[in-house]
Amino acid sequence: MLKKNKKLCWICNSKVNPFMSFGAMPIANNFLTIEKFSTEYFFEMEVAFCDRCKMLQLVNQPEPQQMFNENYSFFSGTSKLMAKHFEKFANHVMKDYLQDSKDPFVVEIGSNDGIMLKHFANEGIRHLGIEPSANVSQVAMDQGINTIVEFFDKSLAKKIVSDHGQADAYVAANVMCHIPYINSIVEGIKVLLKPDGIVMFEDPYLGDVIQQTTYDQIYDEHTFLFSVHSIQYLFNQFDMEVIDLEPQETHGGSMRFVIARRGARPLQDNVHKQLEFERKLGLIDSATFDRFRTNCEKYRSDLKEMLNDIRGQGKSIAGYAATSKSTTIINYCGITTEHLDCIYDTTPIKQGKFSPGAHIPIVDYKKFRDNYPDYAVLFAYNHEKEIMAKEQDFMARGGKWISYVPELRVIG
Ligand code: JHZ
Ligand code: SAH
Ligand code: ZN
């Protein structure tokens, strides 16, 4: 466990006061076998807002190696929507940021199974993925994508520069918010990047989390939830600045930050507009997070009550998609095997195992149609379109979906 009981901001080292505790939480992607139940790891998941740098953050977190290792169970390529999304992201970088370079070099951290880098590789562009989880990185390497199986930090950045030279672009998706020692990452980016190089990364956006009460974006891997204010503070510390923003619909609402060395590239108007929007939304006021906690408590009791009512009527319920986010929903709301018979999922290494904490069986999604429940809780609301399209027959046969984003509702 990192930082136990110190309660200091990961970015600016100020003292932080947790505004909320989710209680004892397991590792969100630790799908486990029965033999491992008795030794399962839990930590108290407390969340704090730093008044100084405006970063929303976990106070304690398991060690990175406990979460990201050769048994990591999130494979990016499982979603068709995300495959398309990363193809567009890669094309955007190539078209708008690499044209002026003779022999461009792109570095991606958290490259996972190569879902984004393969598009650079296919165009013959020099590329390097940094991916510490050996099983997912192997999938990328099997496709000929250059990958280093390590955690990115400042010292690795120096090594990359001495082996390959500086990079034109540093890209990342859904990984920057996972790294507690993020100051070292930003220092590493500075070492790695050419003077006019570009940084583009995207993560779930705090504005969307607050507006939709998607508290399930808070789990062990997500050290931070970013706003433009907090990212501006983080990079300003190292003479870099946010120059552009590209909001995304992925993962329930994300923000892509475009960053360069201070003064190296023109600043777009939308940065100031978004900062103004964040002030109006209260993303820099601690009172907002007290309201958020109250909203979370209401969401929790409403969902629990709905599941209890349905079970009281003797109807069956299953979960659909064993997402990381569902680990927070299930454990925070006290959902158990009394509520859910199982959770259907497409990921082979999750199937046949049990969910973290609540130990609900994970079953191959192909079996869903053999034994439709009366209700299915959609734990991947971010993949709603893709899942609804694939599972049309469920509703046609009278099945009902339960969704809780943007509000708790029954569909069907
Ligand atoms: P999905 C992970 O979050 C973890 P998760 C991580 N911390 C993060 O930030 C984001 O990804 C990027 C299943 N599924 O994408 C497969 C189906 O069963 O919302 C996976 O188990 N059927 C890095 O885990 C899970 O959903 C389907 O049709 O919350 C993935 O969930 C689809 C599309 C997915 O990410
Ligand atoms: N970019 C992909 C994968 C996100 S999952 C997508 O958006 O779908 C987050 C990934 O980051 C995991 O595969 C994890 O192993 C990796 N990761 C975690 N810490 C890292 C670090 N310090 N450096 C590089 N990768 C890291
Ligand atoms: Zn701070």
What does this molecule look like?
The chain is of the alpha/beta class and 412 residues long. The protein contains 13 helices and 17 strands. The chain has helices spanning 64-67, 80-97, 117-122, 134-142, 154-164, 182-192, 206-212, 228-236, 269-281, 286-312, 324-333, 384-390, 392-396, and strands at 18-26, 42-49, 56-58, 105-109, 126-130, 147-148, 167-173, 193-204, 224-225, 240-248, 254-261, 317-320, 343-345, 362-364, 375-378, 400-403, 409-411. It has a seven-stranded mixed sheet. Strands 14-13-12-15-16-17 form a six-stranded mixed sheet. Strand 7, helix 6 (182-192) and strand 8 (193-204) form a beta-alpha-beta unit. Helix 5 packs parallel to helix 6 (182-192). The longest helix has 27 residues, at 286-312. The chain is globular and about 65 Å long. The N and C termini lie far apart (44 Å). The model has no long low-confidence stretch (mean pLDDT 97). Residues 9, 11-12, 14, 50, 52-53, 55 line the site of zinc ion. Ligand JHZ is lined by residues 74, 78-79, 174, 221, 251, 321-325, 345-347, 350, 365, 380, 382-383, 386-387, 390.
